[in-house]
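Internal tracking record. Fields below are filled automatically when a chain is submitted to the structure queue. Please do not edit lines marked as system-generated. If the sequence contains nonstandard residues, flag them in the REMARKS field before resubmitting.
Queue: standard
Priority: normal
Entity type: single polypeptide chain
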Amino acid sequence: MKNLKEIEKALHSADEETRRDALQALQGSKLTDIRGLLFTAMGDDSWRVRKEAVEAFIAAGPDDDSISGLLDLLRNEDNAGLRNSAAEAIIKMDTRAAGNLIHLANDADADVRKFVVDVMGTIGNTLFLAPLLSALDDTDVNVAAAAAEHLGHIGDAAAVPELLRCIIANPSQLFRFSALGALGKLTSHMPVPPEISVLAEQEILRQSVYECLGSIGDHTAAPILLNGFSARQKSQRKAAIIAWYRIFSRSSATVRQAMEESLSSLKGSDGFPSLLDAFDTVEPEIAEAVTSLIGIIGDTRGASTLLKACTNERLTGSALCSLKRLGAEGVEVLLDLYVSCDEASRAAICSIIGAIGHRGGSGLIIKALADNSPSVRKAAVSAAGRLSLTESIPAIVQLLEDSDGEVRSAVVACLQVFAFFDTTMIRQVALQLGGSENPFRRRDAAILYATVGDHDNLALMVKDEDPAVRRTAVFNIGKLHLSSHAGLLRMALVDEDPDVRIAAAEAIGETGGADDAHTLLHALDDGDCWVQCAVLKSIAKIDGTHAFAAIQGLIGRADGLLLICCLEQLEIIGTREAMELVESVLDNPDPEIVSLAIAILSRQGGEWLVANAGRLLNHPNEKTRVAWVTTFAGLPSDDAHHVLLRALLGEQNEQVRLIIQKFLESPP
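SYSTEM-GENERATED OUTPUT FOLLOWS
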């Protein structure tokens, strides 16, 4: 296709692909020459052709005349595809057509005004707030209702007063439904006029009124919403409950107290089950509201619903608060339910007993230690610790052999709690475990020795045959800051297992002094980079001067993880000498290392990057050059623009050039 006449002829072909090819052939043409062809194609029977025409129009960069011509297409009453294509093109231009749209919002044709309102609302920019507010008073109810709906989408609370005024003034149910829906998406928190609240008496508007009150109302709307708790339709009850709870959640302590008192009439009432019926974990907002309201009302009939909430991780905290408000009577209801519950609920009941500290459930907890479900046993062990049920220690110790790892971990944590109440008994348990042939039990013994303060037996575990036991013992010596065991820690620095050596290095960092820093310096020659990193961090923790000297010796030969650790410690040291060492790695071939160094230097001030601009501009790795450009462009430096221009002139990689151009055109 060599000329516009051939293209125009092709656009009338019966073949869809021929018409699409014709549109593609228009690329590069002046829009004023091809505008008519594009408008014709926007009304094509094929949505693919229409889409191609819209894209071509946008790509051509339309001027005001072209935009006006496009808007005129909205007047076409015979071709819905053409009108929709025009609307799509306007939307894609975003605010470029704002002035034309705003002018057209006062068109004499209601259908055109409706299209304009829909387009402005879809774009969603606050530039259209004023014309949309004016459209609320449109004589055509469809235009006014659409304007109200789109004001909700834009989300500007400045629209609230006008929406309220128009709801009162416009008796159309269509308009009121749309405007109430819009208010339900806005926030204002103000007394709502009684003319709005009274609309809740209309069945068709009731739910929308409740949602509106929850979004923009204050505590004065609470009585109306409370009445909604007993609405005939479940969806209306849910809307009222959610709205009441929203207002409650954002109110002052004084107002909340008054609102709580207003709920007292629901305790023991026939209406309370309707509140429980609204609970649904699939709908987070209603589930949260009902969970909290049960505790406020204080009706133990809600205990089983709170149990369901406790099995939902997101609701557990709220459910426990409500159960605490129900008190012992509420927990007793759960105890009666226990035998008929599934394992998730049994575990939840055990957790509740422990969290609330309900000693009346002690017998159930002891029995639950033998439950078939690991999750129940785990919850029972934790609850036993919270209730300080030292009489359950023998049964809990047996669970150290449990097949479930989480249960065993819970047992050790529980025994640590018991140590505060019966140190002697837990020490005996530790001694028993310390003599076990099972290394896992000996590891548990090391933890318990540390808990009860049996430092001598803890020290013996440093020489255990199992590396996990040795690591645990070394870790706890560091945790307890036992400087008296420094010799053992030095010995552990040369352990055959790297995890033990790491634990030893970290422990020395917790307990050591200047002399230990010298000991750690020798460990920097360890063959494991993770050990080297742990050693370096501990040296820095003890003495920054020693750490800097160590890094000076390492940085020329370090790579990978160890070099990253060196750079991180240099940033912590933060002296000029430290930054000069960071500078020394800017020629490193690893782009990740150089990117880290660039980031560290940038946090010290732009002068470091300016000083190194030349070497970074010429770095052989393009990722490094991109990292430098990205970081440098974000610095508040007067020289940034000139340096980036220099970078653009010397850059050969097209992708890097595009990034530089982007920053020059739109600085971050």
